[in-house]
Amino acid sequence: MKNFLIFLCFMVVPVIARAQDTIFIKNGQAIPAVIIEKNDVEIKYRKPGKPESPAIYSVFVSDILKIRYSDGIVADYTANEGKTGGGKVRPVDLAGTMKAIRLSVGASGDFFKRDPSDDLLIFWRHKLNDQSAGISSNPVSIPVNLKAAFTIGKSARNILGDELQLIFTPADAIHASAYNGSYEIKLKSFYYNIILFYGHTLNHKQNIVGIIEPGLDMSFMSGYLKLNNTEYILKSNLGTGFHAALGIDWMITRRLLASARAGYRTMRVKESHEDSNSSTGYSYFYVIPGVNQDQLSVKWNGPFATFGLSWCLYAKLPL
Predict the structure, then answer these.
(1) Fewer CB within a 10 Å sphere, N or C end of the chain?
(2) Closest CA to 207 of 163, 246, 252, 150
């Protein structure tokens, strides 16, 4: 019986010991692990416990502070990290921690499905005396994005940030034509959006982040209306609106960020009072003169989706 117990101890102790490996991440997280593979890029491991988990996880070597093995040996992964001739740690080496802010610049493709039901459609149908007339939209534009984001909390799983987004719509973002071009609409817009966003990491590598994004949108509209072969240059007051979106940020590398958003955008832009053609006697357009005396306005409302890439830079925070 005694020999059996000794044999059992020899069988169980190695299993327990393997479960005592601990990976310490730079953000302060300690991961109990059964390490199964190591290389210069990542450490692969299973979670300890019985029955043994079949799932294999990994963590980048660059994110590891140290590993304490079951036999008490500690491997320091920061001894030679991020050092230059002056021995300084680069800001990029602090990515994903509370010690660095991420700055990024990029461009996106934006698909916006505008709802045409507004004063402009009523005005257009009245001018054509055709209640079935429609107005079309070009849905594609190219936003330019400038972002700043930083990590909060020791777990490094929460991100706060702000963004300046500039959207240049095509010249025919809103367009219509009738009677062989004697009646036409062609309008475009320039958006200036101020955005706040909150993110939470969705995977153990913490490089995929779910995003909630509200934003204040401002816009200037320009273009022209052609009525009975007379062209009127259209200018606008500053339009204001908002958007709300959900999305994903994926840190492909520490320098390359992919983003996707889907949401709903609202905007209303009113024509300015400036007379663009003094010979016509118009100072601005009414929706339906004598019936609806509201000044002509255009709604830029509807769902949108964006997909983009950004290049990232980092700066140290004094924490």
Answers:
(1) N
(2) 252
